Amino acid sequence: MLTFFIIPNNSIAFAVEDDIKQEPKTEEKAETETEAEEADEKEEGKEESTPGGAENIEAKSALLMEPISGKIIYEKNIDEKFAPASVTKIMTMLLAMEAIDSGKVSLSDKVTCSENAKKMGGSTMLLDTGEVRTLEELIKGVAIASGNDAAVAIAEYIGGTEGDFVILMNKRAKELGMKNTTFKNCNGLPAEGHLSTARDIAIMSQELLKHPTILKYSGIYMETISEGRKSPIELVNHNKLVRFFEGCDGLKTGYTSEAKYCISATAKRNGVRMLSVIMGAPTYKIRNRDAGILMNHGFSKFQGKKLLSKDEDVEEVKMGEKTDKFFIAKALNDLEVVIPKGIDGELEKKIVIDELKEQYKVGDVVGKCEVYLGKEKVGEVQIYSDRDIEKGGFLEGIKYNIKSIFK
């Protein structure tokens, strides 16, 4: 599938999915094809929102997950290995977001595009050798336009070389329990042995969703990058569900002639987020339709509940058995759970404190609050101390014992 965009100075930037290569078209032809595709996408959007049964899934492999708990709701050949194409870039984005959120790098960091990055084929954000872009712009280039050049630029910046970055990708995959995945590059271009599964893609997608900033980028349909360029870069999202499927804000599409059409798609409605992975669909329409069918199925079966707001008091925690000293554990983030509709049963909160320390500073993470529906854990949130506090020593214990005598 080919999309053209008209940009200033009578130049045309065009993006293709992964390994498809096309010759540039005239401006007039580009306009005609863009209009035709827009009409096609609108019709596609109607199909995607039409309720359907999971028995109609045509892709070779498919999965539906509720990503808060990790519960798999639907599966089809989810451990069969396939080429993941550009869905690979979920791991590239995950490593980038982990580096950003840990403070190792910043979104505003300046990254210089290498010749190696520029020469990448397939989908591209049209970077030039020596061009300097912010890390945030490169992440947009990956999340929106599936830029193979942007992915390599990110890999080289974080890993030193693309090869070293791929080592980090495989290491992280192993840590996450992705048992059937081997990465050979950072962008998903065809390479022997570059394989993954729907289950593994769901696992890394679930992990990426723990960095919600990424949805600010993967949920953008169109973005223009013009600073420092004679011809602006027009990024248009390969994931048309972002535009036509209610609540969709990510994550990543993929296509190669070997992989066929793939996607890791996520959407949120009424407090419920669903994650659908499709691999080996014969057309992009079937890929998007299958993903839409599964997510609609999830939305029809589950409901969301918000139990705690960010910074809300959770529980009083004593500093020990023989002390009156305590702190208030607060929620580090909102705590939302997703549970089946029509299920009766009390949600039970369980406070799990890490090994109790002698002292805490305000803001220190002290453990987590877990939520259970029966025996099944349906959500959790980290909790932190609301104050600076010390447990106290020998004298504190004596004072406590004296108080206890006169109670």
TrEMBL record:
It comes from the Bacteria. Residues 18-60 are annotated as: Disordered. It catalyses: Preferential cleavage: (Ac)2-L-Lys-D-Ala-|-D-Ala. Also transpeptidation of peptidyl-alanyl moieties that are N-acyl substituents of D-alanine. Pathway: Cell wall biogenesis; peptidoglycan biosynthesis. Its EC number is 3.4.16.4. Residues 33-42 have a biased composition (Acidic residues). GO terms for molecular function: carboxypeptidase activity. SUPFAM superfamilies: beta-lactamase/transpeptidase-like, Penicillin-binding protein associated domain. SMART domains: PBP5_C (SM00936). Pfam families: PBP5_C (PF07943), Peptidase_S11 (PF00768). Keywords: Carboxypeptidase, Cell shape, Cell wall biogenesis/degradation, Hydrolase, Peptidoglycan synthesis, Protease, Signal. The keyword Cell wall biogenesis/degradation applies. InterPro entries: Beta-lactam/transpept-like, Peniciliin-bd_prot_C_sf, Peptidase_S11, Peptidase_S11_C, Peptidase_S11_C_sf, Peptidase_S11_N. Residues 302-391 form the Peptidase S11 D-Ala-D-Ala carboxypeptidase A C-terminal domain. Residues 18-32 have a biased composition (Basic and acidic residues). Transmembrane segments: none annotated. It is an enzyme of class 3 (hydrolase). Removes C-terminal D-alanyl residues from sugar-peptide cell wall precursors. Belongs to the peptidase S11 family. This is serine-type D-Ala-D-Ala carboxypeptidase. It comes from Clostridium cibarium.
